[in-house]
Task: inverse folding
């Protein structure tokens, strides 16, 4: 049995559909898109929504996807306040409910917890987080700290993902659909050639969540485990150039420098995670080709 916050979002909605397709019990916890509206800022609301669905003999897992993902610097005071409340206090609420109901919690985090770092190599699961001064980076880092603080007293796992792409029908575009839409609207598309990122297939994230659920049900994951569920490291320019070639776009892909417009290295090492999960992300060319073959629209 899988409970999932943010179930109407870009990534979690794909996870939901895959669970349903495989006949798994999936209960979405979201303000929108579910039969019952659930607000993670209302701890009692979350507790009641989960407790009422529990069944004897079935081990549940709670995936916490819900988050505000404003990544810019010029946020309004309302956006900043909502980010802190949802990303941090909301996470603490989920942890408390998980503790009370004895349900493992998988907290979905991000490569942006390293946005303030200066490391040139990919960040390891064991590296200390280094957020920058953006609200998104700060709040997601604070949420991770809250998760690890309770790791000795309840079962928790942190799963970091990055630049998701796929989910062909969701109104929000992932990285690939965004880039393809830019290519259709512009003769020239400028993409950073000196920023390291790890675009990640949403289908791969979904399949990984199922594997994590199985490992938790059989108690094969340690509490406090951090997992990097990401694709191979690349640059926006290389990823965009591959997409343009595969989708036969007639536009110029121009390499530019990120300069001071963001973190130069957001790449995550997934070698240890691959050993634990025995799963490996496909190459980006393979995944982009697959998405084209199934009729990616944007």
Result:
């Amino acid at each position: 049995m899988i409970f999932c916050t943010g179930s109407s979002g870009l990534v979690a909605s794909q996870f939901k559909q895959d669970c349903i397709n495989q006949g798994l019990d999936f209960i979405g916890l979201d303000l929108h898109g579910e039969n019952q509206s659930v607000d993670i800022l209302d701890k009692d609301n979350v507790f009641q929504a989960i407790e009422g669905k529990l069944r004897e003999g079935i081990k549940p897992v709670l995936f916490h996807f819900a988050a505000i993902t404003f990544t810019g610097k010029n946020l309004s005071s309302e956006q900043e306040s909502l980010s802190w409340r949802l990303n941090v206090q909301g996470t603490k609420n989920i942890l408390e409910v998980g503790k009370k109901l004895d349900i493992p919690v998988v907290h979905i985090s991000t490569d942006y917890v390293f946005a303030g770092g200066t490391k040139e190599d990919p960040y390891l699961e064991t590296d200390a987080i280094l957020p920058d001064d953006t609200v998104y980076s700060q709040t997601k880092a604070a949420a991770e700290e809250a998760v690890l603080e309770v790791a000795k007293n309840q079962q928790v796992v942190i799963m970091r993902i990055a630049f998701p792409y796929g989910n062909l029908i969701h109104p929000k575009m992932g990285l690939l659909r965004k880039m393809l839409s830019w290519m259709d609207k512009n003769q020239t598309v400028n993409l950073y050639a000196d920023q390291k990122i790890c675009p990640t297939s949403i289908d791969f994230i979904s399949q990984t969540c199922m594997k994590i659920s199985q490992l938790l049900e059989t108690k094969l994951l340690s509490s406090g485990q951090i997992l990097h569920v990401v694709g191979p490291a690349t640059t926006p320019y290389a990823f965009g150039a591959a997409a343009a070639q595969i989708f036969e776009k007639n536009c110029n892909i121009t390499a530019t420098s990120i300069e001071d417009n963001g973190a130069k290295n957001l790449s995550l090492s997934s070698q240890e995670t691959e050993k634990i999960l025995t799963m490996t992300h496909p190459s980006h060319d393979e995944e982009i080709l697959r998405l084209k073959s199934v009729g990616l629209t944007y």
Observations:
- The chain has a mean pLDDT of 96.
- The domain at 2-293 is CATH 3.40.50.720 (Rossmann fold).
- The CA atoms of residues 70 and 136 lie 6 Å apart.
- The chain has one domain: 2-293.
